[in-house]
Write a structure and sequence with these properties.
alpha+beta; Jelly Rolls; five-stranded antiparallel beta sheet
Length: about 190
């Protein structure tokens, strides 16, 4: 049987690269988001686990926020930035933010252990993960976002870090102050 010749139509992309985009939100916009969503925080859970089971993996407070008239500007800003990164770096087949975004607060001693954002069920559609630093870097110590094997996300306020959802990452315990972040996932057909 004759082997088929495969023709590449474009250069392959390194789909394990990470991107950090400065100034996605201004410091004033970050303060506005913190003020707007802090009153709605609840103890954060790990998908499919209850609070007691989640405690060994994650300790923080969070609220999921869906698109509506008051938050459309946030989704538009996130969407524009992450689509530009996807086109330039990853080339994934992506469509939308199906889960909204998660506003999260980490206080002293709080953390999120090593995990992946992709998984079973609805999590199979997650393609790109993003985290936006809402706190100013001088407002807390610790709380580093580590993306394995060796990337430490910038702590600059308003900076968005983007990485494939299949990459392991964690948030180190906060040692002083409070870390606020906004997290979301751009979805598309499951990886094959």
């Amino acid at each position: 049987m004759k082997r088929q010749k495969i023709h590449q139509t474009r250069e392959p992309r390194d789909q394990t690269r990470l991107a950090a985009i400065e100034g996605v939100f201004t410091p004033q916009e970050c303060v506005r988001l913190v003020a707007e969503f802090t009153p709605h925080l609840q103890p954060a859970l790990v998908e499919t686990l209850d609070l007691a089971q989640s405690a060994g993996i994650r300790k923080s407070s969070a609220v999921f926020v869906a698109p509506d008239k008051s938050t459309n500007w946030v989704f538009e800003r996130l969407g524009k930035s992450i689509r530009e990164v996807n086109a330039a770096v990853y080339g994934f087949d992506v469509s939308q933010f199906k889960e909204g975004f998660q506003f999260t607060r980490y206080e002293v001693g709080e953390y999120y252990g090593p995990h992946f954002d992709i998984g079973p069920g609805k999590l199979t559609e997650r393609k790109l993960s993003l985290t936006v630093q809402l706190s100013a870097p001088e407002d807390y110590t610790g709380g580093e976002l580590i993306i394995y094997p060796e990337f430490v996300a910038p702590k600059d306020q308003g900076t968005m870090t983007v990485f494939p959802s299949f990459m392991c990452h964690n948030v180190c315990p906060v040692t002083t102050g409070v870390r606020y972040s906004l997290v979301s996932w751009l979805a598309g057909p499951p990886f094959r």
